[in-house]
Amino acid sequence: PGSALVLQLHMLPTGKPEEIRCSIGLHFTPTPPKRRPFMILLRNDRIDVPAGNRDYVIEDSFELPTSVKLFGVYPHAHYLGKTMKVFARLPDGAGKWLLNIDDWDFNWQEEYRFVDPPSLPKGTRLVMRFSYDNSADNPRNPNVPPKRIRFGLSSLDEMGTLALQVVPDDQSKLDVMQQAFSQHEVDRDPSGWMGYNNLGTALAEKGQFEAAITQFRLGLDQKNVSVLHMNLGGALAQMGRLPEAATHLKHALTANPNNSGVHYNLAGVLRGLGHLPEAARHLKMVVEANPQDGIAHRDLGRLLERLNTPKEAVKHYRAAIAQNGADSESRLRLARILVFLKRETEAIRECRELLARRAGDPQALGTLGTALCQIGNRSEGLAHLRSAVANAPARAKLDPISVLIMTLSTSKKCTPQEAAEAVRLAEQAVKASRSPPILDALGCAYASAGRYKEAIAAAEEAANMAGRAGAKRMAAIIGERVKLFKQSRPYILPNDR
User: Fold this and answer.
1) pLDDT tier at 135, thresholds 50, 70, 90
2) What span, in angstroms and rounded, lies between the C-alpha atoms of 368 and 371?
């Protein structure tokens, strides 16, 4: 989503109107490819051909770090191109021709694919050697009389590149190939920035972030380029150096303010720094530019929840689900917010849809149970809450148990049997975790059973623990329950039906 497919054409005037006819073929398969190719791009960008020079030569070469099959070669030069020699120097010293053009014609530039792709062992050196004719005897020379020609992107400038499509015999060596070729780019042009960027990217993909950071910084020493700031910011973020990461990502946006990828990455860094409103602002820019980006909508919804704007979060969770109906996280979060907003009918619908896709999901069952209890369907709601506890893995049982305890014990419809069940569950839970939420649930359970002395002790411990942890709001809420328990009154949920 959000990608742009750009077709670039070399156009030459003919002196009359011409119809432009071109097409692009995209071939799709039901299964992903088993092998991935790698493109080796040999080049020399230091071309400087004096006027009258008939045989100006450039070279580049690269040693293969792993064995490959060579499937295609694509040479490129402009009007001064004369000969193109491409060969492999094998580890045993033998040579193997790959391409030999004695009379280059720019108008007939084409890719060449091998009928029988040659195998090239590790240690093979691929060599390109191009020559150029900038004399008056070159019938294709666009300059009469000839003039000095340098490297450039215009057809009237000159270029010398050779793309070789290879497939490593061992697909696990693709990253080795990427790193080796990126190092070659740096060695070929240490004053350029692109090689450092590519080498840094290859290192980052292998998880070598400190080494990647070094390469990105070396690239920035050569040129202040937006993509280097972006990639450096990403590597710094991976190392947990968030303030530095934010600085470089903001630099990247200065040069390219519409780069959605940078906005997205910066939002993640700002979220990690606790700058939630600013993070949300950057994510909003992402979804405005790419409304079909379901992941960005989901991330924005999560941020908006933390910013206590649940109604706005609902909108973005719905947008995420519209892009991917199987997005279970967005659907579950949406259902929970709808329960909080007392929009139980919508919440129930989302939970049932989620359970249709993921039968027995404990979180969906718990949310469904809560929604049903809120609209007065207590019997079915409690059944779903009990199923949530039963289906939850051992490491994640405390959350659904806590919800079930509070639902049982904080309703005016709580029966003696339900109060006893709540106490039993709470006493089991507190053995596993003596945390403020579990102690709070234990206090409510004791109160529902009329055991107020024990309720006060549990709730006071929960409030004190929350206060020491800095959770002042939780401590205050539990403190209000303590006051009720001291009056021999259980805590009943507001608007209990």
Assistant:
1) very high
2) 5
The angle that helices 436-448 and 416-432 make with each other, rounded to 10 degrees, is 160
Say what the pLDDT of residue 489 is.
96
Task: Show the tokens assigned to 340.
Answer: 């909080």
Within a domain: 340: no
Task: Supply the pLDDT for residue 14.
Answer: 87
Q: What is the 3-state secondary structure (H, E, C) of 297-310?
A: HHHHHHHHHHCCCH
Count up the domains in the chain and report the number. Answer: 2
Instruction: Output the CA torsion sign for 396, 399, 402, 408.
Output: negative
User: Considering the domain boundaries, does residue 480 fall inside one?
Assistant: yes
Residue 164 lies in a domain: yes
Last residue in a domain, options 137, 167, 189:
189
Mean pLDDT across 95-109: 95
User: Does 292 map to a domain?
Assistant: no
Query: Is the backbone of residue 292 left (phi > 0), alpha (psi -120 to 50) or beta?
Result: alpha
pTM score: 0.80
**Which of 126, 159, 189 is where one domain is finished?**
189
d(CA 337, CA 354): 15
